[in-house]
Amino acid sequence: MGKIRAAITGINAWVPEYRLDNHEISKLVDTSDEWIMQRVGIKERRILKGEGLGTSDMGEKAVKGLLEKTGTSPDEISLLICATVTPDMFFPATANIICDKVGIKNAFSFDLGAACSGFLFALQTASAYIETGKHKKVIVVGADKMSSIVDYSDRTTCPLFGDAAGAVLLEPTEEEFGIMDSILKTDGSGRKFLHIKAGGSARPASHETVDAKEHFIYQEGQSVFKFAVSNMADVAAEIMEKNNLKSEDIAWLVPHQANLRIIDATGRRMGLAPEKVMINIENYGNTTAATIPLCLWEYEKRLRKGDILILAAFGGGFTWGSIYLKWAYDLK
Ligand code: UT7
User: Fold this and answer.
1) Which domain holds residue 68?
2) Does ligand 1 lie within 6 Å of residue 280's CB atom?
3) Domain final position from 121, 155, 177
4) Is beta strand 138-145 parallel, antiparallel or unpaired with respect to 79-83?
5) I want to staple 5 with a disulfide (CB 3.0 to 4.6 A). Which of 14, 69, 178, 286 is the partner?
6) Do 33 and 148 have their domain in common?
7) What is the reported pTM?
8) What is the pLDDT of residues 24-54, one digit of tens each?
9) Element (H, E) at 298
């Protein structure tokens, strides 16, 4: 018997209808389309509007569509992991809520928080469950309602983020497809540059924390940028070296979409032609755990069975990593 690997056998995503473009952002804060396009590369982002709607509602749509698209019954799913930093509530896990809304009843489920690297961490975790041989159909969701933690009076962060959800179905294979290798890293000392100050156990919510706007994203952009550029490029190059992959072997880089300049630097470091790099930051901004599945979903038609993909991300924590996978199917 060959080694059991986890292969992605289906992908789906869901984005809210409302488009918040740079023109509208420039009415909220002192910024311009030109600045945002030049420094970050974002034109518009999707925003989830509606009283009481949260990350699970986007996750629900992504997962329902995934089940329909792959002809999978909710009863067949044995595990669902949701990567998010914007859960509906502290507990229960958003993964549990998604399962309930979709009718997944035979699974256990949990959330995983690794910020912008969340999808990679969750994909690798799910892959390890599949490799045990005990799980036949596992779903990984990357979903974030970033608009719930963005201060729309702060020009240094509000142009960057958007809302979205993506989901993949993973199944075991003994063929040479699926998740081949991963390198995942964290450095908690990076937390000082990117975090939310209050609302957790160290500084619970109070009138004071609300008045001081401490429930929004705090980011020291330039410092995060420096770490992101070097670490994302390094970890993408490292997984290539470790697996003896040359740039010509790689069909696609699937990078986290935080800043076009970070994406370009990673692609260059890997020696890739720009047309081999998946990019959709212009239309959605940084959707945190959803960026990578959102890219895969949009490029799905162009993916071929056997294509070598390198997924790479960097985010809050700090967390970062890369995954080497061989695409397992052609879209019918
Ligand atoms: O995914 C999670 C991980 N996060 C990231 O990867 C984000 C990494 N960081 C970045 O992408 C970039 O640092 C930002 C996009 C956040 C900022 O771009 P930057 O080129 O690093 O700008 P900066 O912070 O160095 O600011 C340059 C100037 C400043 O003005 P002065 O001091 O030079 O007069 C800022 O006040 O740009 C100003 N500025 C803006 N101007 C117009 C900052 N934000 C804006 C804005 N519009 N929205």
Assistant:
1) 5-177
2) no
3) 177
4) parallel
5) 178
6) yes
7) 0.97
8) 999 999 999 999 999 999 999 999 999 999 9
9) helix 291-299
